[in-house]
Design a protein that fits this description.
heterotrimer; A mainly alpha; B mainly alpha; C alpha/beta; A: mainly alpha; MetI-like fold; 9 helices; about 80% helix; B: mainly alpha; 8 helices; flat; cell membrane (chain A); amino-acid transport (chain A); membrane (chain A); MetI-like (chain A); AA_ABC_transptr_permease_3TM (chain A)
């Protein structure tokens, strides 16, 4: 046991040095996914035919295929047409595009769950549709979507480990390096599992607090 | 020219797909059996078992699939010899156990209390009531979420790539390496294969849901 | 001198069914008109056509001589407030923010101006103590009073009331009717679709009776209630006379 603790103490700093990379990857990807997801949801709800079909096709494709394939496609494939990215950027793009498809569907569900009367009242008072969306519908929809969005965000935090497959030196990649140096794979991956566990639990807790802080009577989520 | 390559490599891709499907079937079955057991333990079991179950669930849902794969492949094989395929089945299967137990737990809890009371009132023991009355209803509720689980595990099989299981994605990568390029086309075809299997699986499960539906269990909007 | 609100020849079809078959009416400044009639005769549709929440198929609406067209729609709507049957308070906003959002975001008032105005209107509907509440924490009657305050805060030229009491339990209609009576007596221009006989008798300047997509007759309350010209009007009045309570509870036209 003390042997394990020594091992952990020795290598934990190197692993933890990957946390900023993991978090940066995650935050950039889900932020991109958030805004692009909103655009996609908008297209699916309010869009004209071409926008509707384009967004629907996009969502189907990205939800219907594995993220690793998407990442390899972007990192190894796009250079064939002259678009070359470093591993980190490629990973941000892949995870961002992937999560936007999922987020879009959550947003769409939440927006459509807001009673029509809210938009009608906004229009009746002289707001444009865009104003109604921004001031009335979105603030309600975004509150409702928090639980689902939190799940999605945490899922993506775990998915950042896939970036290891294209050579991003985030947490998982660092663990593997140590594994090959020391051949104590079981221990090092146990440590890394614990690091992820703590990260996801922390993020879940933070998002839970956000959910409580922004809660409004009458807007609790019916799932 | 490109299509010729694809055509020539098709047997490899199909073989990769076959491996992926085997992996999927194995991990989902493992997850089904253990997940159902775990759900029953968490609802009806002694509190020590219940807490162990919840801890298991938390751990396997809190750790990325890639890390679990590496842990089982590199780590556990320090103690027990097993193939990368076996490691993938265990890692992804136990993870699926955690997710499926959550699905089954929710489904069992969605069966109204009165059903259990009625069953016991007519003299059934708790075990029989669960087996004959509660589960048949709960499993109908579970199919919808289970379809989602199917989709996400199908996609998760591609992660076995990182421990060298020669499934569909790894085959794609081999072809790309051996033919020096054609990445877009090859991974495009690979993606298409996942897409089609996903669609077919969803369609079949949806049909199945329709088959076993009884009045009062109409499926929710698709 | 033309009327404040002029509605002319409004027609509206839903599929094969023509709900409004060319309806015209005028509303003078300071006038309160009540529109009555059996359910399904297009009263609510008429109201919604006036501010184009439901665009009419034909006909024109003029406010202060200016014709309502898609281009000036949002500006016109700022001057034509609407009170809904089911309140439609903004769920995520506190009472105060429900009232200030229009003045702030649409009229461009400063925070303090909007706040002062909101407080003034809340006093007017007797709910100054509920500033910090969320809609879900209020009774139906209180919600409707807040929505009236929200309408007033836009300082509209006219307020359209679409069955403002029909979603309320009978014991809660009184508080809303009282607020509306006060507004009428203070000279607010209002067009009200409602079966509240009490309000119509005491506060309305004129009653409009609609049936089958037409205006059948209109006139001062005394005339219309006590000496109706048409048999259909008489029958309708007998019916609501019998079941004022029932009609309110059933939420006519909902």
């Amino acid at each position: 046991m003390s042997d394990f603790l020594d091992f952990a103490a020795e290598h934990l700093p190197y692993i933890l040095a990957g946390v900023p990379t993991t978090l940066a990857l995650w935050i950039l990807a889900i932020t991109f996914g958030f805004f692009f997801g909103l655009v996609l949801a908008w297209c699916r709800i309010y869009g004209k035919k071409p926008a509707y079909w384009a967004s629907t096709g996009y969502i189907e494709i990205f939800r219907g295929t594995p993220m690793l394939v998407q990442m390899l496609f972007i990192y190894l494939g796009l250079p064939e047409v002259g678009l070359t990215f470093d591993p980190f950027t490629a990973a941000v793009i892949a995870i961002g595009l992937n999560t936007s498809a999922y987020q879009a569907e959550y947003f769409r569900g939440a927006i459509q769950s807001i009673p029509q009367g809210q938009m009608t009242a906004a229009r009746a008072m002289g707001m444009s549709d865009l104003q109604g969306l921004i001031f009335i519908v979105l603030p309600q929809a975004l509150r409702r979507v928090i639980p689902q969005w939190s799940n999605e965000a945490i899922l993506e935090l775990k998915f950042t480990s896939i970036a290891f497959a294209i050579g991003v030196t985030e947490i998982t990649a660092r663990a593997e390096t140590i594994g090959f140096k020391t051949f104590r794979f079981f221990e090092i991956f146990l440590i890394v599992a614990a690091v992820y566990f703590v990260l996801t639990a922390t993020v879940a807790q933070i998002l839970h607090i956000v959910e409580r802080r922004t809660a409004v009577p009458g807007l609790t989520l019916g799932r | 020219m490109i299509w010729e390559i694809i055509w020539n490599q098709m047997p490899y891709l199909l073989h990769g797909l076959w491996i992926a499907l085997q992996l999927l079937a194995a991990l989902l079955s493992l997850g089904l059996v253990l997940g159902l057991a775990l759900a029953l333990i968490e609802i009806y079991g002694h509190w020590t078992l219940r807490w162990t179950g919840i801890l298991f669930e938390r751990v396997f849902r809190g750790v990325p699939a890639v890390v679990l794969l590496l842990l089982f492949y590199y780590g556990v094989t320090d103690f027990i010899e097993m193939s990368s395929f076996m490691a993938a089945v265990l890692a992804l299967g136990l993870r699926s156990t955690a997710y499926q137990s959550q699905i089954f737990r929710g489904a069992i809890q969605s069966v109204p209390q009165g059903q259990m009371m009625a069953a016991q009132a007519m003299g059934m023991g708790r075990a029989r009531a669960v087996g004959w009355i509660i589960l048949p209803q709960a499993l109908r509720h579970a199919i919808g979420p289970w379809t989602n689980e199917f989709s996400s595990e199908l996609k998760a099989t591609s992660l076995a790539y990182v421990i060298g299981v020669v499934e569909l994605t790894r085959q794609g990568k081999y072809i790309v390496s051996s033919t020096q390029g054609n990445v877009l086309i090859v991974f495009g075809v690979v993606a298409l294969m996942y897409f089609v299997v996903n669609r077919l699986g969803n369609w079949a499960l949806y049909k199945f849901e329709g088959r076993i539906t009884v009045p009062g269990f109409e499926r929710r909007a698709a | 001198m033309s009327a404040l609100l002029e509605v002319e020849g409004i027609r509206k079809k839903y599929g094969q069914f023509e709900v409004l078959k060319g309806v015209s009416l005028q509303l003078e400044r300071g006038q309160a008109k009540v529109v009555m009639g059996p359910s399904g005769t297009g009263k609510s549709t008429l109201l919604r056509c006036i501010n184009y929440l439901t665009p009419p198929d034909a006909g024109t609406v003029r406010l202060d001589g200016e014709e309502v067209v898609p281009r000036n729609l949002n500006r016109i709507r700022q001057q034509v407030a609407f009170v809904f049957q089911d309140f439609n308070l903004f769920t995520h906003l506190r009472v105060i923010d429900n009232i200030t959002i229009g003045p702030r975001r649409i009229l461009g008032l400063s925070k303090t101006e909007a706040r002062d105005r909101a407080m003034r209107e809340l006093e007017r509907v007797g709910l100054a103590d509920k500033v910090r509440a969320y809609p879900a924490e209020l009774s139906g009657g209180q919600q409707q009073r807040v929505s009236i305050a929200r309408a007033l805060a836009m300082e509209p030229k006219v307020i359209l009331f679409d069955e403002p009491t029909s979603a309320l339990d009978p014991e809660l209609t009184g508080e809303v009717v009282n607020v509306m009576k006060r507004l009428a007596s203070e000279g607010m221009t209002m067009l009200v679709v409602s079966h509240e006989i009490g309000f119509a008798r005491s506060a309305a300047d004129e009653i409009v009776f609609m049936d089958g997509g037409h205006i059948l007759e209109q006139g001062p309350p005394a005339q219309l209630f006590d000496a109706p010209q048409h048999e259909r009007t008489r029958r309708f009045l007998r019916m609501i006379g019998d079941q004022v309570g029932d009609a309110a509870a059933a939420g006519e036209g909902a």
